[in-house]
Design brief:
With 206 residues, the chain is of the alpha/beta class. It contains 6 helices and 9 strands, in the order ααβαβαββαβββαββ.
Length: 206
């Protein structure tokens, strides 16, 4: 089984354990992060939620703020739930590295704990696509790795048979990539988790 099949099947299995319809411990600070992003966007802006999961809480929060939201996720179970839980948004089941959108079609792109499931060898090209999809003065808010690591975990979240795959570089590499792709980095922030953590980045297209 390749890494993308592992991620797809893994999230199919753990969807309800990861996030119930009422939210759960794995929501992190998503909503507070969005509070920092949404004032930078205009009313009814088009937003892409990349790796949207079941639509909670990100797509729902953005939709409630009257943004036009498109959510993408590789898991059919997650997308089916998202369509039911967040009816105001549009959801598509797809591999984020294979889907495409018109250039400059989004004012904002958010991706929380999703790109780190993409094989590292494909991530730079993915960021190049995100840059192309964003309109001038558009914003990218994304969580990436803090240190270099690729691996899997069996029975993730205590769900028997659920395997998950991660692949990410260190935070400095991601900042170099974004700068090379002509993003302006507004700020970065370490987000602790367990014995490690991830990096939250807000970047802007000039």
């Amino acid at each position: 089984m390749n890494s993308k099949d592992i991620v797809r099947r893994g999230y199919d299995k753990i969807s309800y354990a990861y996030r119930s319809k009422d939210g759960d411990a794995y929501s992190h600070d998503y909503v507070s992060w969005l509070v920092e992003l949404t004032p930078l966007l205009t009313f009814e802006s088009k937003i892409l939620d990349l790796g949207c999961g079941c639509g909670l809480p990100v797509s729902q929060s953005l939709s409630d703020e009257n943004f036009s939201v498109t959510g993408i996720d590789i898991s059919p179970v997650q997308i089916e739930r998202a369509k039911n839980l967040v009816p105001k948004a549009e959801f598509v089941c797809a591999d984020m590295t294979e889907i495409d959108f018109p250039a400059q079609g989004f004012a904002g792109i958010v991706s929380f704990y999703a790109i780190i499931h993409v094989p590292l060898s494909e991530q730079y090209d993915l960021f190049a696509k995100l840059r192309r999809w964003l309109m001038p003065k558009g914003y990218l808010m994304v969580t990436v790795g803090d240190r270099n690591w690729t691996g899997t975990e069996e029975n993730w979240l205590g769900v028997p048979g659920a395997t998950m795959f991660w692949s990410h570089s260190d935070s400095e590499t991601y900042k170099l990539w974004l700068t090379k792709l002509d993003f302006e980095i507004c700020w970065t922030r370490f987000v602790p988790e367990g014995d490690g953590g991830n990096t939250l980045i807000l970047a802007r297209v000039p």
